[in-house]
Amino acid sequence: MRMVDLIEKKRDGKVLSQKEIDWVVENYTNGTIPEYQMSAMAMAIYFKGMTAQEMADLTMAMVNSGDSLDLSAIEGIKVDKHSTGGVGDKTTLVLTPLLAASGVKVAKMSGRGLGHTGGTVDKLESIAGFHTELEPDEFIRQVREIGIAVIGQSGNLTPADKKLYGLRDVTATVDSIPLIASSIMSKKIAAGSDLICLDVKVGSGAFMKTVEDGRLLAENLVAIGNAVNRKTIAFLTNMQEPLGLAVGNSLEVEEAVNTLKGEGPKDLTELCLTMGGHMLVAAGAAPNFETARAKLEQSLADGSAFEKLCEFIGAQGGDVAMIRDTSLLPHAPHIIPVKSERDGYIQEITALPIGHAAMLLGAGRSTKEDQLDYAVGIVLDKKVGTHVNAGDVLCYVHSQSTDIPNVIAEIHEAFVIEPQEAVVEPLIYEAIGV
């Protein structure tokens, strides 16, 4: 088998066999296939695409390139949830305790953020002592005993994906649906769960900018999961404006805690109850969505979801006192109001500049080596559709300094205020596979 022949085959729009895909992934991972040939293959895939079977084969080849977690020692259906990323997306911090409190085992592998705000691991590490470096047997024991564990990505999990992603980043092939879908699903499948829920963000603060592109990605993700016998469901959700109010690591932890106490923002609460309800049904923990949602609402009302969060944080070394009293979390010394410059209705709070402003404060990374400031961030005071007068507070900036003109400029760019009433986009555009 020769790489040049397979490049030519894909360049001409033909279908690669499982044996051919396995050969490419194995030999690229071990260094036999040079970068320039894999670059050509990635570009051929970018232009010619892949069939559903090719994507499934590529996904499993990347899974088999490294370690996988075997969760068979945990009884029942194990669930995992993945978001394609957005601004203020603290869904995991709310949804996983909700599910665990409702009797579903959550075995989640999460990553760190690059750009915008931190990832789930970064948010959790704003809690003193919390750690995500669990050995596989510790991870399994914790899921069995308390129903939830979150770990960072293993050093040898899908090494083929890590290597290929780095190549795509420098060859303008990152935004290839087959390569995105197989990358996401390889990590989720290697993590070992039976049920995978995918939150595909759509809008200015997301990788997928349109509902059409988001739908295409979601359909491919679900097809891959089902092709390899993993029950997979996906939701297209709105990331045109930040999710919830808080953007920044400890600020988002605080908002998640408030949500689990029944005092969270409407959009974050609704998203978690909706996705969680469908996950309970798919996991066989409820006969229908209405029953499932009522079960989740009860766990908010009786405090069991909040207590599950405390149990989870404590099990992984975190200071539970910071969860019971969020004033103990890292807080910035300066809270600066940003005020509206005109009267009108908020038409947009464009998520991308809000995320960039948070990154300038130190809440996100511009390079992998950057150190996060857990205390800083932005807390919105208004959402899309609200009427404001000139001088009304739009948001509060939590900062280490009062000299932040670039941050203030980014925030003013994000808020679009016009005289006419705003059209409020739906929170969830579509559900796929439910």
UniProtKB/TrEMBL annotation:
Catalytic activity annotation: 2'-deoxyuridine + phosphate = 2-deoxy-alpha-D-ribose 1-phosphate + uracil; thymidine + phosphate = 2-deoxy-alpha-D-ribose 1-phosphate + thymine; uridine + phosphate = alpha-D-ribose 1-phosphate + uracil
Domain of life of the source: Bacteria
Protein name: Pyrimidine-nucleoside phosphorylase
PANTHER family: THYMIDINE PHOSPHORYLASE
Cofactor list: K(+)
Function: Catalyzes phosphorolysis of the pyrimidine nucleosides uridine, thymidine and 2'-deoxyuridine with the formation of the corresponding pyrimidine base and ribose-1-phosphate.
Residue ranges occupied by any Pyrimidine nucleoside phosphorylase C-terminal domain in the UniProt entry: 345-418
One annotated GO molecular function: 1,4-alpha-oligoglucan phosphorylase activity
Keyword Ribosomal protein set for record: no
EC number of the protein: 2.4.2.2
Cited PROSITE patterns: THYMID_PHOSPHORYLASE
SUBUNIT field: Homodimer.
Sorted UniProt keywords: Glycosyltransferase, Metal-binding, Transferase
GO cellular component: cytosol
Family: Belongs to the thymidine/pyrimidine-nucleoside phosphorylase family.
A GO biological process held by the record: pyrimidine nucleoside metabolic process
